[in-house]
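Appendix B. Extra example for self-study. Work through it before the problem class; the solution is given directly after the inputs so you can check yourself.
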Amino acid sequence: EIVLTQSPGTLSLSPGERATLSCRASQSVSSGYLAWYQQKPGQPPRLLVYGPSSRATGIPDTFSGSGSGTDFTLTISRLEPEDFAVYYCQQYGSSPSFGQGTRLEIK
Amino acid sequence: EVQLVQSGAEVKKPGESLKISCKGSGYSFSSYWIGWVRQMPGKGLEWMGIIYPGDSDTTYSPSFQGQVTISADKSISTAYLQWSSLMASDTAMYYCARLTSRRWSAFDIWGQGTMVTVTS
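Solution. Structure tokens for the complete assembly:
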């Protein structure tokens, strides 16, 4: 089973700043099968990026995904107030798993 | 509009059985894999398993194999998650979600979640 470790656990930034979230896998993620989700309190997760750099439908271009092998990154180029939430990475190879999440909070 | 609508919250006692549902609409339900994801209170997401409604092909996470049963009825565009004997540790929010394409792909459409509380 591939274990995903997200860092940092909590990220404190201000609106307008750039956010960089990391997801490291315990072994190589096949074919870049890596996705990122956003979850706000009381809501289901929302797919942001997959594959690992394709944006999902309706996701603004301020969100971008990159990486390969065992190291992946979600970048939010300019934070809006509605971007403060919890973010999860997921590898969807033959035994899918999620990271433990990064909480993005307002500084 | 493509959507998944889940059944309502449940409160059950340990040892009881339960079946929750997830109804798809706005797309060809039989042609997309559906998965289930657990979120325990205050915790992260856990991938439980998936089913292809077209032929009921099912894959479980090793962590959930034998603990739950995933099924689907394509005639009514509904997937199910069931327990034969609930435990307090099954208390969680359960989400169904549609996979984007193949068996191994991301979840693009999510249900609103079903809260299951198991308490004596």
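Self-check: Chain A is about 0% helix and 50% strand. If your reasoning did not lead you there, revisit section 3.
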